[in-house]
Amino acid sequence: MKAAATIVSIIFHPLLLTTYMVMLLGTFFPTLLMIAPQNLRVMTAFIFCFTFLLPVVNLIMFRMFGTISSYTLENRAERIIPFIAIALIYMVTALLFFIKLRFSVYFNYLLLIVAMLVMAAVVLNFFLKVSVHALAAWGGIGILLPLNKAVEQPDLLWPTAGAILAAGFVMAARLYLNAHTPREMLVGSITGFSIGFFGVLYFF
After folding, report:
1. Which of 24, 74, 108, 143 has minimal CB crowding within 10 Å?
2. Residues contacting residue 47 through CB under 8 Å, at least 6 positions apart
3. Per-domain residue ranges for the chain?
C-alpha cells in the first residue's frame, strides 16, 4: 500500500498540474486555449519544461547546497526558500506569456491562476505545512467545474469527474503516508478550490 500511495503522490505531483491542465483542456476544450492540435504536444512540452523540470532542477540545486535535507520537504521551515523560488518561476512564466507570447488570453489567464495557487502555497506555508498536493488537485477541480458551463457539449464532464476521483486518491495517499494532517489537507483543498473556481469566474 505504501508503494501505491507513493506512486499516486508522484503521478499527481503538484508541479505537474499545469502540464495536465494544458493537455486536458487542449484535448477536450481546444477552442479555449486556441492551441492547434498539431501544436499541442510542443506547447505541452514547453510548459512541462518551465513548470516542472525547471523547479525540479532548482530543488536538486537546493539539495546539493544543503538548503533542504529532503526532496519531499517534510520540514515546514525548509519549504520557504524552495517555495519562493518556484513561485518566482511560475510568475515569470505567466508574465512571459502575457508580454511576449500573447497568442491566447485564456491560456495566459490559466497560467496566472496556477501562479496564484503557488503563491497561496507560499503564504500558507508560513502558518502551517499545508498539503500542496491537495491544493493543486482541488485547484484543478476548481478550474474545471465552471468551465463545464462554457462548453455546448459536455466534453469536460468526464475529465472533471476523473479529476475529482484523482483528488480523492491523492488525499488518501498523502494521509496514508502520514505526510499531512487532515487539517493541512482541508486547508489546502479549500484554498486550491477557491482560487481555481473564483479565478475562472473572474477571468473567463
Report:
1. 74
2. 18, 19, 22
3. 2-203
Cell readout for 63 is 539539495
Give me Rg for the CA atoms of the chain.
16
Nearest alpha carbon to residue 187 among 135, 111, 114, 116: 135
pLDDT (tens digit, 9 = 90+) per residue, 4-30? 999 999 999 999 999 999 999 999 988
Residue 151: its pLDDT value, please? 61
Full 3-state SS string of the chain: CHHHHHHHHHHCCHHHHHHHHHHHHHHHCHHHHCCCHHHHHHHHHHHHHHHHHHHHHHHHHHHHCCCCCCCCCCCHHHHHHHHHHHHHHHHHHHHHHHHCCCCCHHHHHHHHHHHHHHHHHHHHHCCCCCCHHHHHHHHHHHHHHHHHHHCCCCCCHHHHHHHHHHHHHHHHHHHHCCCCCHHHHHHHHHHHHHHHHHHHHHHC
Measured CA to CA, the distance from residue 204 to residue 200 in angstroms comes to 5
- pLDDT tens digits for range 124-180: 999 999 999 999 999 999 999 999 876 655 788 899 999 999 999 999 999 999 989
